[in-house]
Queue: 2 jobs
Job 1
Amino acid sequence: MSVNLMSKEQAYQLVTELHNQATGIQAIQPVDLSSFISVAQSTLAAGNDKIMGALSVVLTRTLYALRRYTGGEFDDLQWDDARWGGIIRKISFADTDPELDESYNLVDGSSIDKYVVKKPNVLETRYVGSDLWQFKYTIFEDQINEAFQSPEALGAWATSIMLHMANEDRQHTEDMARSLLANLIASKVDATLDVVHLLSEYNSAVGASPAYTAQTIKAPDVYPAFIKWCYARIASIGRLMTARSELFQMPITGKPIMRHTPYADQKFYVDADALEHIKSEVLSSTYNDNYLQLADTKSLAFFQNIQNPNEVQATPVYIDNTGATYVGSAQTVTDIFGVIFDRDCIGYNVIRDRIDITELNQAGLYRNVFMHKDIRYCMDLTEKAVVFLMD
């Protein structure tokens, strides 16, 4: 999903692929339950309308299998509007070394040049290009009246289409934002940068013999102690992120960018099951819950594919230590526990989001509704981020 050219990239195929992965459409195998379950039929033997071929002629009552999709798992990744201009420019200032205090080295008969130049060491990064797609539906005026009992029922059907479009749009945006998080995880692993292997560290810390595995660590008499240790390890990294340093970020050669991430700017996306154990094993046994709350913590039911909740498969793109765009190798990252990052590390901004309806086609008696999306997705590894794996 890299867009590093001054161009608009048609992303409709990517949106479809990510949506199929996120919803589990891909990799699903059919299971024969015909003798056990009465399935909801998609067509009815009473006959179909001639226009769409998918609506049966009306029998008694129509129920719309539709409800508003709230989603919103990644709403907090949306950045400010960037409608004007095709480039986002980000300027960071690198630290420079202190100098000798010349006021204590004064020499008779000489002067100090107070106009000696020392230029700031500046790193400029840019985000260019964007991803765009559209989808449409046709609203019929009266060709499919035979499928409805009244104009009001036909209007309700048209309204339901609009709600369905809104739901699709929201989920597609969410799927793309989810892939942005997947790119961050795969980038860190590809660059072997700031990846914490929780199980390996725990085995070393407690001197486990034999070493715990991803399966044995979840034994009821073992897991509580492990999850508390994990919480402490993550909290210690969150504390270090508040200090101004080059830790947990991509170092750019010749540009010592010192950053710090206050707790208010830290985001922690964690496996939903792991977070429930943190709540039950850590927070529930602590008198003051607020003392142990991680900043802006969000649980994820899955990181990329709903059928493989703790796995990411991606070929990442990121900024390397020269400041150039780098495409890494294909990564399969398993046993993901979570990722903590600065709010400026990843995000997206909506450049265009609009709905347009055509005028009535007098010959065909229908209108087309178009929804257009143009979104820029951004990631900056010079901001702090750490990936936690259960291996």
Job 2
Amino acid sequence: MDDFQGGLATITHVTDEKYYIGVKIKEKPSTTYNWTYLLELQDELKKRFGKTKAHPDPDDRPEFNMWD
């Protein structure tokens, strides 16, 4: 249920962590992403997602939502 599909997103918060720059996005505000890492992947991500917007992509099947 927590699956998410990447794409264009709106950065809402930036933190300067010890080893990386963290960003939060409007489309999934509960998660902090490593911008330092994502910055290196931008060309590849642009090819993969193009102008698609980031969005939830839930899979409600029970076998994919168990934590044990």
